[in-house]
Design a protein that fits this description.
Oligomer: heterodimer
Strand content of chain B: 15-25%
Shape of chain B: globular
Shape of chain A: elongated
Order of helices and strands of chain A: HHHHHHHHHHHHHHHH
Pfam families (chain A): TPR_EMC2
Number of strands of chain B: 9
Helix content of chain B: 25-40%
Protein name (chain A): ER membrane protein complex subunit 2
Radius of gyration of chain A: 28 Å
Strand content of chain A: under 5%
Largest interface: A-B, 34 and 28 residues
Family (chain A): Belongs to the EMC2 family.
Subunit structure (chain A): Component of the ER membrane protein complex (EMC).
GO cellular component, one term (chain A): EMC complex
Number of helices of chain B: 6
Radius of gyration of chain B: 16 Å
Structural class of chain A: mainly alpha
Strand order of the largest sheet of chain B: 4-2-5-6-7-8
Number of strands of chain A: 0
Structural class of chain B: alpha/beta
Distance between the termini of chain A: 89 Å
Number of helices of chain A: 16
Largest sheet of chain A: none
Chain lengths: 291, 207
């Protein structure tokens, strides 16, 4: 069997560059990658310098695609030796286990990554792909929603909240820009603004609670938030008659939505009658103070 | 029981403990309730678990306080205190948020207590209750003398908590945050309360 370099009359540099091109442009031409990569690793490893690690990774993934577990295993060993505590390498080990259909072992690995680093989206994504591979599509969808809703942003905002509201607001503004359809960021941003207080912040809070509801009309926090911010604005002596009137309307709308949601929730469920009753009475008493 | 003494019931303790255990990596908080009349000693007979996310954000906290207030008036209970367990188990000091909420409660209840759960002592077999209490003295929150805190039948309480874990009933606990995620869940925890009261031995009616 002649080598790639002989067959195609290419130098090792050209082979290396080809691999890079395929990497950067995300080609999944696994068989080619295996052919070129394997030879590069076996014959020219010493010349590759630090590129070798990323090549090991690329070749390993391609090897899994081609059921070349022998090659995948040796690449993995090299990576493990060089980066013993790396989450990235752990993830690769997990991918190999997935390829061998050892899903439980793979999940264990991903769970250990997530324990260390709950924001590790790569590990979460792998868990979802396992569920899909196992045909557990509804569970996969549920995990996916979890991942979208409680993703890395949660950690980010939690840490910044412990430092300052202004920082948290800043962080959320950025998240909202890159994730305009995420109702949770809108709602959290609104909560921060509400907490910062003052008329201007309350009005911003009301706007963002409303925006969150547009994106997800079942977000109860946003609904209550809208109710509370609108009520406070309406009650402020500093606002114009028009602003007051508008906010009374928003608050009234929110109240009716809340009532309706609780009525539906209360139907037939004996056990939550207490909490439902508490909300009904609360809304009634708040109505009285507002009018 | 005399002035300055605080009694903590099994029901209240169990639910606080369950709440902190359910969210080991989060700070959690809740309200302490009493069904006894005001004046004299403080008998904490129940608690309402509130949040496990973003404790320092105002809107949901305000909402929860209002709702619990309403529920208390419906059920002849009063809010007499606040509890919190910090995410960082080795630090059981009250956060600014905890002090703020405790202040609010103090405005309505002049022997209100602030209870911090000591994460480091929350392991099975620990001989002492993992709690630290503060009371309002000279315009600040001061550490309460341990000897004024009564936890009747401590061993029985521990055993009840263990039973809840082994039966899986600890998963029944609903806090206000979880209620907002799914409003069919009951933050007054009627089901769990019933299970706990079943486990409390009938001979000790006052646990």
């Amino acid at each position: 069997m002649s080598s790639i370099s002989e067959l195609y009359d290419v130098s090792w540099e050209e082979m290396r560059d080809k691999l890079r091109k395929w990497r950067e442009e995300n080609y999944r031409n696994s068989e080619q990658i295996v052919d070129v990569g394997e030879e590069l690793i076996n014959e020219h490893a010493s010349k590759l310098g630090d590129d070798i690690w990323i090549i090991y990774e690329q070749v390993m993934i391609a090897a899994l695609d081609c059921s070349r577990d022998d090659l995948a295993w040796s690449c993995l060993q090299e990576l493990k030796r060089q980066f013993p505590d790396s989450h990235r390498v752990k993830r690769l080990a997990g991918m190999r286990l997935e390829a061998l259909e050892r899903y439980e072992d793979a999940n264990k690995l991903y769970d250990s990554i997530l324990q260390d680093d709950p924001t590790n989206t790569a590990a979460r994504k792998r868990k979802i792909s396992i569920l899909r591979a196992q045909g557990k599509s509804s569970e996969a969808i549920r995990e996916l929603n979890e991942y979208l809703e409680h993703g890395l942003s949660d950690e980010l905002t939690t840490t910044t909240l412990s430092c300052s509201y202004a920082k948290a607001a800043f962080c959320l503004e950025e998240l909202m820009m890159t994730n305009p359809h995420n109702h949770l960021y809108c709602e959290q941003y609104a909560e921060v603004k509400y907490t910062q207080g003052g008329l201007e912040n309350l009005e911003l809070a009301r706007k963002y609670f409303a925006q969150a509801l547009k994106l997800n009309n079942r977000n109860m926090r946003a609904l209550f938030g809208l109710y509370m911010s609108a009520s406070h604005i309406a009650a402020s002596p500093k606002v114009s008659a028009k602003v007051k009137k508008d906010n009374v309307k928003y608050a009234a709308w929110a109240t009716s939505q809340i009532s309706r949601a609780y009525q539906m929730a209360g139907r037939g469920k004996k056990e939550n009658k207490c909490s439902v009753k508490a909300v009904e009475e609360m809304l009634e008493s708040m109505q009285i103070t507002m009018s | 029981m005399s002035m300055g003494e605080v009694e903590l019931s099994c029901l209240a303790y169990a639910k606080m403990y369950l709440h902190a255990s359910q969210f080991p990596r989060c700070s959690v908080n809740g309200l302490l309730l009493s069904s006894s009349a005001a004046g004299g000693a403080v008998c904490i007979t129940d608690c309402v678990p509130l949040l496990h996310t973003h404790l320092s954000l105002a809107p949901i906290t305000q909402l929860a306080l209002t709702q619990v207030d309403v529920w208390c008036s419906q059920t002849q209970q009063r809010i007499v205190g606040y509890y919190q367990a910090n995410a960082c188990a080795s630090d059981s000091s009250p956060t600014p948020c905890a002090l703020k909420i405790a202040e609010k409660i103090f405005e309505q209840c002049n022997n209100a207590v602030l209870l911090m759960i000591d994460g480091e002592k929350m392991f099975p077999g620990c001989r002492v209750p993992p709690i630290v209490m503060y009371e309002r003295k000279d315009a600040r929150w001061a550490l309460k003398d341990k000897h004024t805190i009564m936890l009747r039948q401590w061993e029985e309480t521990c055993s009840i908590v263990n039973q809840l874990f082994s039966s899986g009933d600890q998963a029944l606990l609903v806090d206000f945050d979880s209620h907002l995620d799914d409003i069919t869940k009951d933050w007054t925890n009627q089901k769990l309360n019933a299970k706990i009261m079943e486990l409390v031995s009938p001979a000790n009616g006052n646990v």
